[in-house]
């Protein structure tokens, strides 16, 4: 089978709609580089679209009925959105599930030190990265600091033109003979991924020099800046969540402006298309749900990851507000649900063609991607979607002329990747991975096709409105 190129079938009007949608997506990527920033933006958009906080509804003792739109947030890093449909909720939900965390570096709890005239911030990388890709890039710091009295300090440095940026140094080529023969995984060690944060020593008076207080003056200068600009002491790093990410806006790529180059497209491309599809859906037969979670890149663990009970508990709360306060109703609802595990897939890269099966790989520009199974090698860790479910999806997407393709992550023996699909499949519901093909996945700057982003959004709209219980 030959994949259809989406650009070849688009009308001028569709081209215009695709470009308009991409502009909103580029703004989202540029402004939402952490989980907390994503949640802030999504909640604001949801409220503007008429969604209400489920916890406030619970506290007020109100009921939930057909047509209601609600959301619930966990620790400012995970959000669930529901649009109540016409059918009995025990018949199941149509679920879009994506993650909003991305590979990055996190600043450690005791990070500040001085060496060789530089003040450094010690980091710990998060998720699967090629460490050598992160050196000599302009970097930004995003996150929050919570002081002992509960005061929250928001940090966002490196994005504005007038902001300073940060960087990790690399060895000059003239001295790199030993470095150049190392394995790529060893060229830069994890403990060497410390960002240079300052180089100017604080001014020390003559009396302080006599008292021996002239040590680590660059570190002291950095701490002085943090105190003056953010009212932040060194100890406050203990209760900080600070993420180091590539600095700069997402950009259109290529002379034809057909692609988007940005940090964090895995998996914010699927998060954006999922929640926009929810907001742009007016009414549904089956209750629609959008899950946007944290921690997928490190195994979906923790209170804000998909493996937590937050989703299940929230559905139970929702059922209770609809007069179905029983464990059996919850089990029926979840088992009868259908889900698109909205995550990215690898795009074919001609430069590394030997890593892909050309017949079973996603191509940029050929539409929304489905992965029947994921996992590693012999489908280890896969949920392996049911054929009947895929048949239904093919039918409804065909009715709405959504361009889609089927793919695998790479050649069978080269490994694979995981998503949140297997976790939801444990409830017995039908689940399949779907999303956008990404070039240079998990690198600081990833590439997608505008057409694929737009077709995925269109596919999610179709799913929310037409997917059926199988």
Question: Which tags fit this structure?
Answer:
Aminopeptidase i, Domain 2, 6-stranded antiparallel beta sheet, 14 helices, Aminopeptidase, globular, 470 residues, 2 domains, 9-stranded mixed beta sheet, alpha/beta
Protein described:
The structure is a single chain. With 470 residues, this protein is an alpha/beta fold. 30% of the residues lie in helices and 23% in strands. It is built from 14 helices and 20 strands. The two termini are 26 Å apart. The model has no long low-confidence stretch (mean pLDDT 94). A hairpin with a 3-residue loop joins strand 2 (69-74) and strand 3 (78-83). It has helices at residues 6-9, 12-31, 35-48, 54-60, 177-180, 184-187, 206-210, 217-230, 265-279, 310-321, 327-335, 387-399, 421-425, 450-466; strands at 52-53, 69-74, 78-83, 93-99, 104-115, 118-126, 139-146, 152-157, 195-198, 240-246, 251-253, 259-262, 287-293, 338-342, 345-346, 368-371, 404-406, 430-435, 437-438, 446-449. A nine-stranded mixed sheet has the order 1-2-3-13-4-14-18-16-17, with helices on both faces. Strands 8-7-10-5-6-9 form a six-stranded antiparallel sheet. It has two domains: 6-102 and 263-466, Aminopeptidase (3-Layer(aba) Sandwich); 104-246, Aminopeptidase i, Domain 2. Helix 2 (12-31) packs across helix 14 (450-466), helix 9 (265-279) crosses helix 14 (450-466) and helix 10 crosses helix 11 (327-335).
């Amino acid at each position: 089978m030959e994949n259809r190129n989406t650009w070849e079938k688009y009308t001028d009007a569709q081209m215009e709609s695709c470009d308009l949608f991409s502009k909103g997506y580029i703004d989202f990527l540029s402004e939402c580089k952490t989980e907390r920033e994503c949640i802030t933006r999504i909640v604001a958009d949801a409220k503007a679209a008429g969604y209400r906080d489920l916890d406030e509804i619970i506290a007020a003792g109100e009921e939930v009925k057909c047509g209601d739109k609600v959301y619930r947030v966990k620790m400012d890093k995970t959000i669930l959105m529901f649009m109540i449909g016409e059918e009995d909720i025990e018949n199941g939900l149509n679920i879009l599930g994506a993650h909003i965390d991305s590979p990055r570096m996190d600043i450690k709890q005791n990070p500040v030190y001085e060496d060789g005239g530089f003040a450094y911030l010690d980091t710990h990388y998060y998720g699967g990265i090629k460490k050598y890709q992160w050196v000599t890039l302009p970097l930004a710091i995003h996150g929050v600091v919570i002081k002992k009295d509960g005061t929250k300090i928001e940090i966002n440095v490196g994005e504005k033109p007038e902001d300073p940026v940060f960087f990790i140094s690399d060895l000059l080529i003239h001295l790199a003979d030993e470095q150049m023969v190392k394995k790529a995984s060893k060229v830069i060690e994890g403990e060497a991924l410390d960002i240079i944060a300052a180089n100017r020593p604080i001014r020390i008076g003559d009396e302080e020099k006599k008292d021996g207080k002239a040590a680590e003056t660059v570190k002291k200068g950095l701490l002085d800046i943090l105190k003056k600009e953010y009212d932040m002491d060194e100890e406050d790093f203990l209760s900080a969540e600070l993420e180091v990410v590539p600095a700069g806006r997402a950009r259109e790529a290529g002379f034809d402006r057909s692609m988007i180059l940005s940090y964090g497209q895995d998996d914010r491309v699927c998060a954006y298309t999922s929640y926009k599809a929810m907001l742009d859906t007016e009414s549904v037969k089956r209750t629609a749900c959008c899950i946007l979670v944290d921690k997928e890149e490190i195994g979906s663990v923790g209170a804000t990851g998909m493996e937590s009970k937050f989703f299940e508990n929230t559905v139970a709360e929702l059922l209770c507000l609809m007069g179905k306060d029983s464990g059996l109703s919850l089990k029926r609802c979840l088992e009868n649900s259908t889900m698109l595990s909205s995550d990215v897939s690898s795009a074919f890269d001609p430069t590394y063609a030997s890593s892909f099966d050309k017949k079973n790989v996603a191509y940029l520009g050929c539409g929304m991607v489905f992965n029947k199974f994921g996992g590693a090698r012999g489908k280890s860790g896969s949920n392996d979607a049911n054929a009947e479910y895929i048949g239904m999806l093919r039918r409804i997407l065909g009715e709405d002329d959504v361009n889609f393709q089927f793919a695998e992550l790479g050649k069978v023996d080269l490994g694979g990747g995981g998503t949140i699909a297997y976790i939801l499949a444990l409830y017995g519901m039908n689940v399949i991975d779907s999303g956008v093909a990404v070039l240079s996945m998990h690198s600081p700057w990833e590439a997608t096709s505008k057409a694929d982003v737009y077709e995925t959004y269109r596919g999610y709209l179709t799913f929310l409105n037409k997917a059926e219980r199988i």
